[in-house]
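Regression test case RT-17, inverse folding.

Input:
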């Protein structure tokens, strides 16, 4: 199964998860395994080495975040020039390696002064963010044409304001959840205007969000309560969020849709049957679910959601994340090939999918789970202060896919 010419085969990371030495709301956060993000993968100092690893993998694209808290110390302040220079150097090294960057502007973190002012529940954050984006884009437009404004606003607002897993760890604040989404959607529209106005060197800038899409289903179809729970989740996290960012006239703000797709969550007696919500892996297996360490795998869903997004929005799509955390590399290889086969079928059926970014380049700081969930193509030995990287078997599988621009039939 060949993919279209010029298809982007990439990998992805985010600043808080890999860089280390960061001052944001995660700095004081202690994960479930006792870990923190103080050093993480030390990619802050080792980005050149990590680009070398990417060249070895044979990827032609890299989706990574620029950390707002490094660049602005106060609202409307000028950008910190030495931190900017580090990101410029990273971009230059990517270009030298023939790797196309996609820059993420917000990935679950804010500068301390934004958090002190109420984070994204505060309306003033919108103007501060748009100011930052204007300055950043002016500085980087010669080097970047793919901009991803917000990573998974749904996950961020849900886990920070409903489930209490991300800072500021609020629970069941539905009003705040909605306000965060509304403000981010407004910021997305304004930031995309700025990005498209500023342009990109010799190319049309592309801009979009990355929407996490999880399918929510009831385990037993006749269980009305589980069906109602699944519908409530779908409505809140998928429909409401998609409408806020892309509904009606707002669709025109985006030139593409980023899709982060991992799988589905099924409910049984109100309980989400996934390891990430505390259901024991053994019980999940007894139910006959195929699962990594996070969610149930559901490759058919990739085709369903791509068909839906294509039909509804008629925009180009990038799979901005897919990956699995499992210690079983054979499982990960099968999962990848099944999802890519579904992606290939979607392209054949007409969806304009232009790239795929494997989550993640490195094992890293997986937010509230710390270092226990390992999504990397490369392993990092966190017990060794030198944090040595090494390839995992999946890296070889992915390298072949990138080189051949395709997969064998599954
Ligand atoms: C996504 C996040 C990413 C990582 C993966 C596993 O929801 O965008 O940072 O946590 O899931």
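Golden output:
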């Amino acid at each position: 199964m060949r993919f279209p010419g010029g298809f982007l085969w990439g990998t992805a990371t985010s600043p808080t998860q890999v860089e280390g030495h960061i001052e944001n709301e995660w700095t004081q956060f202690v994960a479930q395994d006792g870990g923190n993000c103080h050093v993480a993968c030390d990619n802050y100092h080792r980005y050149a080495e990590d680009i070398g690893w990417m060249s070895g993998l044979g990827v032609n694209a890299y989706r990574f975040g620029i950390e707002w808290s490094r660049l602005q110390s106060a609202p409307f302040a000028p950008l910190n020039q030495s931190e900017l220079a580090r990101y410029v150097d990273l971009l230059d090294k990517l270009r030298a390696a023939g790797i196309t960057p996609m820059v993420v502007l917000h990935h679950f973190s804010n500068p301390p002064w934004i958090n002190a002012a109420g984070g994204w529940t505060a309306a003033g954050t919108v103007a501060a963010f748009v100011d930052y984006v204007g300055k950043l884009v002016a500085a980087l437009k010669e080097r970047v044409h793919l901009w991803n404004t917000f990573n998974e606003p749904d996950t961020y607002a849900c886990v920070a304001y409903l489930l209490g897993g991300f800072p500021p760890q609020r629970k069941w604040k539905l009003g705040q959840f909605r306000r965060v989404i509304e403000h981010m959607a407004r910021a997305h529209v304004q930031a995309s205007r700025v990005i498209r106005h500023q342009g990109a060197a010799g190319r049309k800038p592309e801009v979009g969000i990355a929407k996490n899409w999880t399918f929510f289903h009831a385990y037993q179809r006749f269980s009305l309560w589980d069906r109602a729970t699944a519908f409530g989740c779908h409505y809140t996290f998928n429909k409401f969020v998609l409408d806020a960012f892309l509904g009606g006239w707002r669709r025109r703000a985006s030139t593409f849709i980023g899709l982060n797709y991992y799988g589905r969550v099924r409910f049984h007696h109100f309980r989400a049957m996934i390891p990430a919500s505390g259901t024991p892996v053994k019980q999940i297996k007894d139910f006959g679910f195929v699962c990594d360490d996070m969610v149930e795998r559901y490759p058919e869903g990739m085709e369903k959601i791509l068909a839906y997004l294509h039909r509804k929005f008629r925009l180009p799509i990038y799979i901005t994340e897919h990956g699995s955390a499992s210690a079983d590399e054979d499982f990960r290889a099968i999962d990848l090939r099944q999802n890519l086969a579904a992606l290939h079928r979607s392209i054949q059926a007409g969806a304009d999918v232009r790239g795929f970014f494997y989550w993640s380049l490195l094992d890293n700081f997986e937010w509230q789970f710390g270092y226990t969930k390992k999504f990397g193509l490369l392993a990092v030995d966190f017990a060794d202060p030198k944090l040595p990287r090494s390839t995992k078997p999946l890296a070889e599988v992915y390298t072949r896919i990138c080189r051949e621009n395709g997969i064998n039939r599954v």
